[in-house]
Amino acid sequence: MTKEATLKNDNWGWRARIGMFIVGGEAVPEPEWGAMAPGGVSVHAARVSAGAPWARWQADKAGVDLADDLLRGARQFATMRLSAVVLGHTSSSVVGGKGWDEATVASLSAVIGAGTKVTTNGLDTLAALRASGVKRPFLVLPPWFPDDTVKAAIRYYTDHGLAPVAVHRFDPGRKWRDLPPGDLVGQGLGLEQEIEPLYVQIRAACPANADGVLIAGTGFRCVGILDALEHDLGRPVISANQASLWHCLRLSGVRTPVSGYGGLFGL
Q1: Measured between alpha carbons, how far is residue 193 from residues 26, 27, 184, 188, 223 in Å?
Q2: What is the Cα–Cα distance from 27 to 220, expressed in whole angstroms?
Q3: Measured distance CA(154)–CA(43) in Å, rounded
Q4: Whole domain around residue 65: which residue ranges?
């Protein structure tokens, strides 16, 4: 190496390497994690193309059967000496219902190996809400969540003792308003999200009796507004990707400070 040459950061995960299962066509999770992740933490994504939930309950509910994409990714993650792996799909957790997260973690752990901590976005958001002292959340959902998934989300958090005091499905604006929720992502909304309107809607709609906000959906762009909302509302604001990164860092033993993305990272 010459005197003029210098070593450059290559984002090697010397503190932790985290694996993340994400929706095949989504572009939000990796940038949001990249914005928030501290140095020395690398993120490795496996994409899944399957309907929710990504693991199906067996007939007797004794366990779950992993979707093919999930199983393929788990086998690949098993070779990578990862610190933690998260199934980053809110819809799978809420549609799967109470007990699904634990059953899926057990099945994934059997494939990935005992040396890697495994979690789900459902478990991550529950842990984040409890750590933040939130018991009565204002639940904010993506516009592409259909009615049955909205109901499943309300039931999921209620069944875990965190019944939402109100629910708001984001209004994406005139261009999208007349399309059914199931058509929005296919028509391109997932790649045309703006965070300012979301900030305005949450600030205006958050009820006084909510002791915190949960923005669900790992494909829902929002981490850029978390700090501002906490400042304005005076309450904890949790998002899906923020919660999963925070939980995976804690499971990996990493407590490196992260600023600018909500008070959760200080807990």
Answers
A1: 12, 11, 11, 9, 12
A2: 10
A3: 30
A4: 16-121+249-258
Lookup result for tokens 């490795």: 44
Q: What is the pLDDT of residue 117?
A: 98
**Is residue 117 domain-shared with residue 191, that is, in the same domain?**
no
Among residues 99, 98, 101, 103, which one has the least CA distance to residue 64? 103
Q: 240-251 vs 121-131: helix axis angle to the nearest 10?
A: 90
Q: What is the pTM of this model?
A: 0.96
Does 177 share its domain with 228?
yes
> For residue 185, how far is the Cα from the chain centroid?
17
Q: CATH number for the domain including 209?
A: 3.40.50.12500
Count Cβ atoms within 10 A of the Cβ of residue 266 and give its class: 0-12 exposed, 13-18 middle, 19 or more buried: exposed
For the chain, the domain total comes to: 2
Taking residues 62-83, report their average pLDDT. Answer: 97
The answer to whether 206 and 219 are in contact (CB under 8 A) is no
Residue 123 to residue 93: CA distance in whole angstroms: 8
Residue 162 falls inside a structural domain: yes
Quick check: is 132 in a domain?
A: yes
Summarize pLDDT for 200-222 with one digit per residue, the tens: 999 999 999 999 999 999 999 99
**4, pLDDT greater than 80:** no
Tens digit of pLDDT for each residue in 36-66?
A: 999 999 999 999 999 999 999 999 999 999 9
Q: Specify whether 78 is located in the same domain as 130.
A: no
Q: Let me know the angle formed at the C-alpha of 55 by 163 and 182, rounded to the nearest 5 degrees.
A: 65
Q: Tell whether the model's pLDDT for residue 2 goes beyond 90.
A: no
Omega into 197 within 30° of 0, i.e. cis? no
